[in-house]
Design a protein that fits this description.
The complex is a heterodimer of chains A (714) and B (184).
Chain A (H helix, E strand, L loop, with lengths): L2 H10 L7 H13 L3 H13 L9 H12 L12 H15 L22 H6 L37 E5 L3 E2 L4 H19 L4 E4 L13 E7 L16 E7 L2 E7 L2 E6 L13 E6 L3 H14 L6 H14 L3 H14 L19 H13 L3 H10 L9 H10 L3 H15 L3 H13 L3 H11 L4 H14 L5 H11 L16 H6 L3 H17 L1 H12 L7 H13 L2 H17 L3 H13 L3 H18 L9 H5 L1 E5 L14 E6 L5 H5 L6 E5 L2 E2 L6 H6 L6 E8 L2 E8 L1
Parallel strand pairs in A: 1-3, 1-4, 2-4
Antiparallel strand pairs in A: 4-7, 5-6, 5-8, 9-10, 11-12, 11-13, 13-14
Chain B lengths: L4 H9 L3 H12 L2 H17 L1 H6 L3 H21 L22 H7 L3 H9 L3 H11 L4 H8 L3 H35 L1
Helix pairs in contact in B: 2-3, 2-5, 2-8, 3-5, 5-9, 7-10, 8-10
Classes of the chains: A alpha+beta (714), B mainly alpha (184).
Chain lengths: 714, 184
């Protein structure tokens, strides 16, 4: 859903006839888009105010009035008796009113609302999308807890007492009235916390010797800035949270920001699992849930998979923000062993085996207006083997307007359900009908048959050699063979997929790679980063044509591409004892105009001499060990304007990469590396290479509205 | 067969009274004014029964009459026939004054505030939103108002934005009123 679609819906659709899914998509967008919020939120509320029924005697009154006018222009000729019969008619009409039928409101247009008799309830429900969006004003802290989800009660038997340090209230609300409200809520919260058995409450300054060490501290702070027209409203908004402790439940009402964080050293406390923040009710439950998930992510998810699962599933199911839902799904996939590890999800506790998760994911994949989200969902669901996915996947393959989504659906179908006859039929149909050649070729391969492999191989080579195609089109088949396709899958960076893919190609095709790669890298950020990966893996492919191809790229590539090429030549010189690579390195180290190339070449030569002296091979490629794929943040729901255009992570490498160890996640926007701001279009690799090795450095990222500091180390 | 004015009324107007009333209520937000407006429309219709009978769609014709009566009425009440051009209307919201969805949602809970905000709108904006709220889509609204649907779409958008802005203003006024009340 985007701004235009919201406008279109508001202009032309019967809002009462929207499906729950459509409505949710609209709400999701509107609540995250300050431009659409006014047009959606206020208007739908107003439209939902019921029109009181017309008084029954009104028809008679009108009729009498008309009669009394006596100036009615007749269609054929003017009646003069109108005035005379007015009084009689009035009485007659009043009597007849009992039998007057409801006028047919469909004469011109389908009604937006139900007939008057049913109007009030229907209209009251018109914008109450579902219970999660009921958008009641924030409840005061003393209200009874809402009914809770039964399955979310895994901690009945917890025993350990909890020691909580409550920090003093940071009441930053300027207006006295607002300050008073926040202070009252804080007091109410403390009172409730004290009443929970098993909880020891520490004063903020309790440092007496022998005093218990706090496990957790809880901070509530009032926050203004909701932009009300009047100072009284600046403390508006807010939410209510419920904290489940081992021995009971604490509900807290709070305006403004609310954080739960582990006291230093407690993140490793096994009892961390016992503290969970879960059920939230407020005018924006998803926002708060997301905020809490964000807090939890900050210090790591609780180790208890059931709690984690509940929280994420709820977010996936209920969030109005499509990106939050996507992230929740990715988190679920990540913790279930799928997605980033790309291992099959065979673990018995895999989150993606939960039917609720599958439902949420399918809902996301079929309603998200952003094709990237749709594609990502189908990718994340790989490995589940759940046959209920087949129909929506087939629909995506056959009907999705975005060919990348069709490509992903095809990949998931081929990997999971290739043997299903429905899927086979769909492959055959797609191989003939799809508008994108790559989709047709892959479908043909997936459909199997005696010559499928040969034809695919043919297709990959023909694409590479075809000068009429764009560079990206020439290279995409090869990339998809290596699973380095344009979907934002994390890459395997061990190069194991590269050698078999290159084995498919004849020498000419390999050399043609040099003509396609620089252009494609310039055209697409994903291809660019994938290209570095590809080049970095070429050190062990023994074909001589590869060296020729690399030498060709040196003549045409951009700086980063050339740097990766020089690194690849270094590997070839050292590992494969490639004389031509070696000669080129010597030349580069002496004469290349770019000092960076000279430096990389010189390091490769140094490594070579150390190798000859009996040392171990030196690693070169920093970019590979960094383990990130970057792109540029695009505008979209939930993305503030100042994040658009900044470098964003779209893929994180395997478990041994710096990025994975530091906890970098897909969709993180890089803000600072070691205190240095990362400008749009920055060369991240170069920034990181400049840092001292073996020393921790800080990476500041933006993740779902929060700035998070990560610690990384080479 | 001789058709009296009342008979014509019964045939051409009466089936649509309910709809006229609903649309009128949407515009004026109270029963009495809504009934006045509909009656006014009925009288106007009587004066031009020929035009009504010749119309492709009597309801569309009536709605247009009602719209004109409404706009005229508001202008009369204001004591000035001059009105800011609809096109000029109110400027679109600037980025700097984008409204927080949370706050909007909260303010929208108060139906009275919402209706007051609506009544602050220009009469044409009220007309368009009123029709839209009753389920008429752009082609139908084009037929009723005679305004091109692209222009309509723009005006609807602007009207919705103005509505939100007035709501925030209303909310501010209401809060001040409460405060003053409690102080005195």
């Amino acid at each position: 859903m985007n701004c235009q679609e919201i406008s279109r819906t508001l202009d032309s659709r019967d809002l009462n006839a929207l499906s729950a899914v459509e409505r949710r998509a609209c709400e999701a967008h509107a609540m995250s888009c300050p431009r659409c919020a006014p047009t959606w939120v206020v208007y739908t509320r107003l439209a939902a105010i019921p029109v009181p029924p017309m008084p029954p005697e009104f028809v008679a009154r009108c009729e009498a009035l008309v009669a009394a006018q006596g100036r009615v222009t007749p269609i054929r000729r003017a009646p003069r008796r109108a005035l005379l019969v007015g009084a009689i008619l009035m009485i007659a009409a009043a009597a007849a009113m009992l039998f007057v039928q409801q006028p047919d409101r469909r004469a011109v247009a389908p009604p937006a609302v139900a007939p008057p008799a049913e109007a009030p309830p229907t209209m009251a429900a018109a914008t109450a999308i579902d219970d999660t969006v009921a958008s009641a004003p924030p409840a005061p802290p003393a209200v009874d807890p809402p009914p809770r989800d039964e399955k979310a009660e895994p901690m009945e038997a917890a025993v350990a007492p909890f020691t909580v340090r409550v920090l003093p209230l940071r009441n930053e609300v300027l207006h006295p009235a607002g300050r008073k409200v926040v202070a009252a809520m804080y007091a109410a919260f403390l009172e409730r916390l004290r009443a929970v058995p098993g909880v020891t409450l520490l004063a903020a300054d309790a440092e007496a010797p022998g005093a218990p060490v706090p496990n957790y501290r809880i901070t509530i702070s009032g926050l203004e800035g909701f932009g009300g027209a009047d100072a009284d409203h600046k403390f508006g908004g807010g939410f209510e949270a419920e904290i489940l402790l081992p021995s009971g439940t604490v509900r807290a009402g709070s305006y403004g920001s609310y954080t739960v964080e582990a006291a230093p050293g407690c993140a490793t406390d096994p009892r961390a699992a016992d503290l969970e923040v879960r059920m939230i009710t407020c005018s924006d439950p998803e926002g708060v849930a997301a905020q809490l998930v964000g807090s939890l992510r900050k210090w790591g998810f609780p180790p208890d998979p059931a709690l984690r699962h509940t929280l994420l599933t709820r977010l996936l199911d209920r969030s109005l923000d499509v990106l939050q839902r996507q992230q929740a799904l990715l988190d679920l996939a990540r913790f279930g062993g799928g997605y980033s590890g790309r291992k099959s999800l065979t673990q018995p506790d895999s989150a993606l085996r939960d039917p609720a998760v599958i439902r949420g994911a399918v809902d996301l994949a079929t309603t998200a207006s952003d094709p990237k989200v749709r594609a990502l969902v189908w990718t994340a669901l790989r490995g589940t083997g759940n046959t209920s996915l087949i129909p929506p996947l087939l629909a995506a393959l056959g009907r999705d307007a975005d060919s990348e989504v069709r490509l992903t659906a095809l990949g998931t179908l081929a990997g999971e359900f290739g043997a299903d006859p429905r899927v086979q039929a769909a492959f055959t149909a797609t191989a003939q009908r799809d508008t994108r050649p790559l989709v047709r070729a892959l479908a043909h391969r997936a459909a199997g048959g005696p010559d499928a492999q040969t034809q695919w191989k043919q297709y990959v080579m023909e694409s590479l050699k075809d000068p009429r195609r764009s560079p990206v089109e020439r290279i995409e088949a090869l990339f998809s063979q290596m699973n380095l396709g344009a979907t934002s899958l994390p890459l395997s960076n061990d190069g194991s997929a590269v050698a078999p893919a290159l084995d498919m190609l004849d020498d000419e095709a390999i050399r043609m790679l040099a003509t396609a790669l620089p252009g494609a890298a310039a055209e697409s950020a994903i291809v660019r980063t994938s290209s570095y990966q590809l080049l970095g893996s070429l050190g062990s492919v023994a074909r001589p044509a590869v060296t020729e191809m690399l030498l060709d790229i040196l003549d045409s590539g951009n700086t980063s591409l050339r740097a990766s090429t020089v690194e690849a030549l270094g590997k070839r010189a050292n590992r494969l004892n490639d004389a031509r690579a070696y000669a080129m390195l010597e030349k580069l180290a002496d004469t290349d105009p770019d000092p960076r190339m000279r430096q990389i070449a010189a390091e490769a030569l140094k490594a070579r001499s150390s190798l000859r002296a009996g040392g171990s091979p030196q690693p070169f490629s920093m970019s590979q060990r960094l383990g990130i794929i970057m792109s540029v943040m695009e505008a979209g729901p939930g993305v503030p304007d100042d994040m658009v255009g900044r470098p964003v992570i779209i893929g994180v490498g395997g478990p041994e990469t710096v990025a994975q160890k530091a906890g970098v996640m897909v969709r993180d926007v890089l803000l600072e590396i070691s205190g240095t701001p990362v400008p749009a279009g920055a060369d991240i690799t170069r920034m990181v290479e400049a840092l001292p090795k073996g020393v921790d450095f800080e990476v500041l990222v933006w993740r779902f509205g929060q700035k998070i500091r990560l610690i990384a180390r080479f | 067969v001789r058709e009296s004015g009342t008979a014509q009324f019964n045939t051409l107007v009466r089936p649509h009274l309910e709809t006229l009333y609903r649309v009128a209520y949407r515009l004026v937000r109270n029963r009495a004014d809504a009934q006045d407006l509909v009656q006014d429309t009925c009288v106007a219709a009587c004066r031009n029964m020929g035009g009504l009978a010749a119309a492709d769609s009597p309801l569309r014709w009536l709605l247009r009459v009602q719209q004109n009566r409404f706009i005229d009425g508001v202008r009369r009440k204001r004591g000035s026939p001059v009105i800011a051009a609809d096109d000029a209307g109110e400027p679109a919201l600037m980025d700097s004054e984008l409204l927080d969805p949370e706050v909007l949602l909260q303010q929208s809970q108060d139906e009275q505030l919402l209706e007051q905000a609506f009544l602050q709108l220009e009469e044409m904006q009220r007309t368009l939103l009123g029709l839209r709220m009753e389920g008429y889509d752009l082609p139908e609204m084009e037929a009723i108002t005679g305004i091109d649907r692209k222009v309509l779409s723009n005006r609807l958008h602007r009207a919705r934005q103005s509505l939100a802005r007035h709501l925030m203003e209303q909310a501010g006024v209401a809060a001040r009123g409460r405060r003053n009340g409690s102080n005195s």
